[in-house]
Specification:
Largest sheet of chain B: 6 strands, parallel
Largest interface: A-B, 41 and 50 residues
Number of strands of chain A: 0
Helix content of chain B: 40-55%
Distance between the termini of chain A: 39 Å
Oligomer: heterodimer
Radius of gyration of chain B: 22 Å
Chain lengths: 230, 277
């Protein structure tokens, strides 16, 4: 038995065949849900969850704890990595009512680091967008180094500004819409623009889901059955 | 039950079966639907064409087997273009799975173009560090941050990395991902160093890409599978992206047809005095 297993794993083609077959069986088992809820689907769903958790744990040990912490500390004499254990262990005091404050030190340090990054993230991401939102709407020929603006570009910019302002007005809650009918109208148009945006986003989501199905179909028809080729 | 009521009550299993048929059809029958090239895809192509000689390109990947149908055509198209133009590139994977998937793709394509690992491309491997920390460090010191490739070979021994010190030696970055982390590249690399960055998201994340695109923070975008298909068309080398986008087009046509059918049934049955649904 042991020899048969070793022989199997020493043959890359046999291993590849087994991988493809297990992939196909798992795919079909999961897709049985499309017919109706059933025990095969549930069984493979639990296989998947178990595999995902096991894989995640394995990665943490093999890719992080051993090469980045245990190895340098134990094999390379970097003893100061032992303090990382103390720092990490501090998080677990969140479960202690008496010593909860210890975990807050660790959380505070991590949050401070994250907030520092967020400042740069926010500035680098959003300030150029605000600047780019101030678009010209009057067509003009090139002036010096500044490029001109054609009529279609000006129309595009006008539409952009119209949508921007109406959507922003929807999120401006300081108006009494009973008294300011124009502001109410702008907010209503803004809501419609948002709905159009959500519709487009949902359309893109459907497209993405179809792509997932295409990927699985190609796997079944090409990799497993060999019925189609590039 | 009237015809109009039946139009609203098609069994979902029948719809799933129809979907499978229309998706499988283009895989068996070869045909080509017209592909319009959008400005965002053209932007990526033009930027790759203009990468200065001696600069490195980075293909940053954050995808796995789950989004293969979208991310693989994008990755393949980018690699083909870089191989064809003789631009050395580094694979920068953000997950262990991506390391293997992108490396396998590069090895497969390298045979077609006669390219060699180490000279024409390198794989930096997954580093298991926070993305922001890695980007900030890499921007200033690539060899010191990356240290070695996915096989454990020091970067100094790889010809493609010769003379590459920091982000100034990088002429182009394409981030291929189903995850919404493109703005980290923008905030910590593009905004600070001006490196041209392209975005290749899955279709579900496409909406996130248009505002940085409009603000010129991105040079272009390959939106999902369709983006891969457009890029293959620009390269005049239709492959999986074009083939699979045919399936996508037919699937969407079917869905539009079903929506129209159900709505026609609804309004017609209301007009006929039925309750609708």
């Amino acid at each position: 038995m042991r020899e048969a297993i070793l022989q199997f794993f020493s043959d890359p083609e046999a291993v590849q065949r087994a991988v493809v077959w297990s992939g196909a069986v798992c795919t079909l088992a999961i897709y049985t849900f499309l017919y109706r809820e059933n025990v095969i689907y549930r069984l493979f769903e639990h296989f998947y969850l178990g595999l995902a958790v096991g894989y995640g744990l394995f990665l943490v040990v093999s890719e992080i704890l051993i090469p980045k912490w245990w190895g340098p500390m134990w094999n390379e004499g970097r003893w100061w990595w032992a303090f990382a254990l103390t720092g990490g262990a501090m998080f677990y005091f969140v479960y202690s009512q008496k010593h909860n404050w210890i975990s807050r030190l660790a959380f505070g340090a991590v949050m401070g680091l994250a907030v520092g990054w967020m400042f740069q993230d926010f500035a680098g991401s959003n300030f150029p967008k605000i600047a780019a939102s101030l678009k010209p709407v009057i067509p003009h020929p090139p002036v010096g180094d500044s490029p001109g603006l054609s009529v279609p570009e000006a129309v595009n910019n006008a539409i952009f500004l119209f949508v921007l302002l109406t959507v922003m007005s929807y999120f401006f809650f300081s108006f009494d819409y009973e008294k300011h009918r124009r502001a109410a109208k702008a907010a209503q148009i803004g809501r419609w623009m948002l709905m159009l945006g959500f519709g487009a986003m949902f359309g893109a989501t459907v497209m993405a889901r179809m792509s997932l199905l295409i990927g699985r179909m190609w796997f079944l028809l090409h990799d497993w059955l060999g019925a189609v080729s590039f | 039950m009237s015809v109009f009521e039946r139009m609203q009550r098609i069994d979902r299993r029948v719809m799933y079966l129809l979907l499978v048929v229309v998706i499988a059809l283009p895989m068996f029958v070869r045909f080509r639907l017209p592909t319009a090239i959008t400005p965002e895809v053209r932007g990526v192509y033009d930027t790759v064409e203009a990468i200065p000689r001696g600069k490195l390109a980075i293909l940053s990947g954050d995808w796995g087997a789950g989004t293969l149908a979208e991310s693989l055509p994008q990755t393949e198209a980018m690699m083909r273009h870089l191989f064809r133009n003789g631009v050395p590139f580094a694979i920068l994977p953000w997950a262990p799975q991506t390391t293997t998937l992108m490396q396998n793709t590069a090895e497969r394509l390298a045979k077609e173009y006669g390219k060699v690992y180490g000279r024409d491309w390198v794989n930096w491997g997954w580093k298991a560090v926070p993305m922001v920390a890695f980007l900030k460090s890499m921007a200033k010191d690539i060899p010191g941050t990356v240290k070695e490739d996915y096989r454990g070979t020091p970067l100094s021994e790889l010809p493609a990395m010769k003379g590459v010190k920091n982000i100034d030696d990088v002429g182009f970055v394409c981030h291929i991902t189903p995850v919404g982390n493109i703005m980290l590249w923008v905030a910590f690399i593009q905004a600070v160093y001006g490196t041209p960055i392209a975005y290749a998201p899955t279709a579900v994340m496409v909406a996130q890409g248009y505002d940085p695109l409009d603000a010129k923070q991105l040079v272009g975008m390959l939106p999902g599978l369709v983006g891969g298909a457009q890029y293959e068309t620009l390269l005049n080398d239709p492959r999986s992206g074009v083939r699979w986008s045919n399936s996508l087009s037919l699937a969407e046509l079917l869905m539009i047809l079903l929506i129209v059918l159900a709505n026609v049934g609804y309004f017609a049955s209301r007009r006929a005095g039925g309750a609708g649904r």
